[in-house]
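Dear Dr. H.,

I hope your travels went smoothly. While you were away I took the liberty of generating a structure for the chain from your last submission, since the lab meeting agenda had it listed for discussion. I wanted you to have the full record in hand beforehand rather than looking at slides cold. The sequence, exactly as received, is reproduced here:
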Amino acid sequence: MEKSLSLPISIYALGGLGEVGKNMYCLESERKIIIIDCGVRFPGVEFPGIDYIIPDFTHLKNNRNKIRALFITHGHEDHIGGIPFLIQTVNIPVIYAPKLAAALIRNRLEEFRIQTQTKIVEYDSDTIVNVEDWKVSFFRVTHSIPDSFGVCVDTPEGRVVSTGDFKVDLTPVGPDMELDKIAQMGIEGVDLLLSDSTNSENEGYTPSEKAVLNSIEEIFETSPGRLIVSTFSSNISRIQQLCEVAVAHNRKIVIIGRSMEKAVDISRQYGYIHIPDNSIVSADSIRALKANEILILCTGSQGEPMAALSRIANGEHKDIHIFPGDTVVFSSSAIPGNGMMIANVVNQLTRCGADVITNSILSDIHSSGHPAKQELRLMFKLLNPKHFMPMHGEHRMLKIHAEIAQSLGVPKEKTFVLNNGETLILSNNKVSRGYDVETGCTYIDGKGIDGLADAVIEDRKILTENGVLTICVSLDSKSNTILVPPLLYQKGLINKGSSKIDMECRILIEKGINEVLQNKPSYAEIKNIIKKIAGEFFLKRTGGQPMIIPVIMSKN
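The corresponding predicted structure, in token form, is as follows:
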């Protein structure tokens, strides 16, 4: 029987395309919107003072009455970290999340002191959620955190499947991936597949979590002193393995870093990490232990300046300091853009006498949670989609993933490499490109929901690179004369303290102001003259382009 009414569905990302992190994908019809994930991207050194980068929610604010639910695939920050900001911006009636992710979300909302009417409902692989005439179901995948799922959305217009983050791990730490369920969806038919692209550049298979265990054992056996391991606080599978090996080697476990403490506490509470109570000790009690009886688990594997490992390396932690004989292990891959920060921490640790082990083919201490090319090919073979949109990855990763799809028989015209905000239209089981929706980045400094604009970020970059020059001028507005010659105050300029350059600039500014004062200019016009003269002068004399702040004081 034919459908009496067709309501085309738009599929688009507000984050996660052309970047690693900030994942947020939406399905929208004329009547409703459902959202899959709402994450953050952690900024590198190019975003001074920024704590998080989240999607721009403007499109959702403009369509707030259509939002029906938010579905979470797993508990990593790049998939749940934006939720506190989202629910303060628009009303999300209900959040559906796996058990561990739901616990992490509740904890995050408590941390932000957010009171909300949003219901958080836990789901498992048997759960089916009906959103009016859409049916949402779930399938378990393997990843670097327990309780990871893909999402299947059945609509009158066709079926959309999102893999979430996954890897095909046949010997996982935890439950198996539901390959049979995925294959059945493929037999029934998939109109559009959205699939994880983060490791699409790597041929072969991503190593199993169990494959890392031998390397961990070897490090424990060969480390003569204290062992300090830094990893993502949400990499629960890795933390579980480290704790099990530590207990087996009679090492006490010290947990450093607020996010690590919370993650371990919640994971122990829900049974994902098993550590005897007497194996965990506080940081201030390790002086009573021998060096080879200690494992320190901490955050900071990306070199973040305020994370635990950076503070330890710089001697700023009140209880933990690096001593010769310590072994420090970075058990995570570098997020693109963080290489310089990581290198700085590694150098500082080495300078303090530590033996530092980072990810390499020899040590294999980090196994990614994302699929390499053979796993992507297997997912295509199982799901056999008619159309394909790569997601979660930088542009080159998305492009390579699209080429993999084409090599497996998906026509080029049916593979879509999109940017955030670009849409696909699903109608009568066919997919085509659609209109664009408003998108962008919101920069969070602190915990407020009022993000910083791109102009503010640009100002910070100018201050970081070129410094600031404040120019004060005192005027008599009645007589249109300068009362006090221009005064220059510099911060961060390379020529700071050069009286000759200051004097030349002051003379030029005073001359320029006197020329325009004859025409009774506005304060805005005087400020523009000051900025123009000083900007051109410093560019010519020093090659710098400082931020220039004119300050005009008037007698009247």
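Two observations you may find useful: The first strand starts at residue 9 and ends at 15. Residues 444 and 451 are 5 Å apart (CA to CA).

With kind regards,
E. W.
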